[in-house]
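PT: before anyone asks, these are the final sequences, not the draft ones from last week. 662 residues across everything. Please model them as a single complex and drop the result in this thread when it's through.
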Amino acid sequence: MLEIKDLRASIGEKPILKGIDLTVPSGEVHAIMGPNGSGKSTLGYVLSGREDYTVTAGTVTFNGADVLAMTPEARAAAGVFLAFQAPVELPGVNNANFLRTALNAIRRAHGESELDAIQFLKLARAETKRLSMPDDMLKRNVNVGFSGGEKKRNEVLQMAILRPKLAILDETDSGLDIDALRIVADGVNALRGPDFSALVITHHQRLLDHLVPNRVHVLAGGRIIRSGGPELALELERRGYTDIMAEAA
Amino acid sequence: MNAPVTLGAPAFLARYEALKGGLPGDSALRASAAAAFRAAGLPGATRDRRIEAWKYTSLRPLAEISFAGPAIEHRDVPLDIGIPSLVFVDGVFDAALSASVPGFACFADQPDFGTLTWPDREPLVALNTMLAEDGASLQIPDNVDAGVIRLVSIASDGGSSHPRHLIRLGAGARLTLLEVFGGNGTYLHNPVTEVHVAAGAALTHVRLQNESTDAFHLATLYAEIADGGEYDGFTLSLGGRTTRFEIHALLSGPGATAHLNGAQLLSGTQHGDFTSVVRHAAPGCASRQTVKNVLAGHSRGVFQGRIEVARGAQKTDGYQMNQALLLSPDAEIDSKPELEIFADDVKCSHGATVGELDAEQLFYLRSRGIPDAEARAILVRAFLAEALDVVKDDTVRGLLERSVESWWGRQAA
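LR: through. Structure below.
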């Protein structure tokens, strides 16, 4: 279970998150929607440990552990995974080596044996096949020369291989066609289970057709201003943010 | 009790006086080189004589060490990687360690100082010309593909050696030359190499400088590339206390190409200098240069690159890039690119980048569970992998990659 209490964070002197309270029970998928600049991506970054942000107040626990006290790599080992809105290119780093290094680092942290190159490739090929991705994605440098859609799919592939307990998807559906959207949804749905939860940051109801959330939260001005069931996403789609923000004000 | 020990330039000159009767080749040339060296001294060792080309690299530490003449010791045969090798130990050819290579002769047997070098302008070339005892003379006949040949120079503690190499490729000939430098202890390696690439010939010249951490490596290379010829050079510098690789490439015929790429990995208090002068003397020639530096600890990297375009060398295409990755706040890079253009229809560009590891890339790796130190190592390797990618021969590139890995292993230890 993810428990966020009165989380406040700034970049430089500028406050972005102004007191977030959010609980995601294990086994649930929650959607976060909200206008641009409301702090959605900041929330994802703060949960995964990016150092550009300063947490000024509040607590975050995941399955009882103090997330804010952990390094990014320790959070990943604890099961936190952020699918980046703008996945980073790593020239000179082979995708398969990158994924294997990451998986083995997490396995090591859990006291599990590392996978050799052959064991890993077998696993990775099975995942690329399941997600209808070309095998050559593994041979290329991480995200270098990938189209926008390929970068997003590569995030889903990483998620499938690392099998997180908490997946945070930061607009992973943006700019994707219907087929790619389905791949993203399938990637999350495949991990769904009693020990898995997800925070899905999105602008579009469309993703939520394939990935039905337990709860929907509206984030505006650094606070969650409204929460509801899946029907809230439909209402947002119909009415836009302005009305709902006016109601909450 | 102790006899006064002569150091620096006077010691090298004393050695020349002692040996000069027995040294091979043109004695008048050696005498004039000795006069030039006496006048110039070791760059940086004497306060009142400053040389602009040595602005960032001082050889004062070299002047404070007493070097013996070549003292050949038994040493390990370098790793056999299935490439025919010519091995020089302390500057002298070792037939027992070497393969039989067609077109090879020893400088000691067939002394030839070549035609491109400037002992009067380059003090280290003067020093080599004065004291060279041996070297490799390699002649590849017209239209012959000589495959891959390895040229190994190994040095012993306390010695100074001055190998003199001459490589000539006939028209349409091809050769991949892998040059490897190494040794034990404190020594000076001062090789001078002259290369002639005739019309339509192609030389791939890969240099692996893996000297001991106390060594001085001061190498100078002159290359002339004729019509449509190609010189494809790559230097990987890992070792040494004070090192400099200075290359003078002359594109003398239309359509000639020179690639002067390299990578330097420096740590501790290492000083590494990569200096090049490319002269476009004919129209339609291309030169390409990317030099990458990884600087840790208190190390200092120097890059001096000059592109000269002569009058009439129209349609010149010159490109030069120097990139440095600083892994420590105490590391330093001095970068001095220069363009000198006397033609009006040319395309020349140069640039330099200096930076630390990219914070966003580092966070991306760590967010996937990769520990900070391992993530940093991945990014440094990636930076270098891009540099090594230009080395086409798989065996040679594999050797360079292994050398980088073992360098990395030494840093981690």
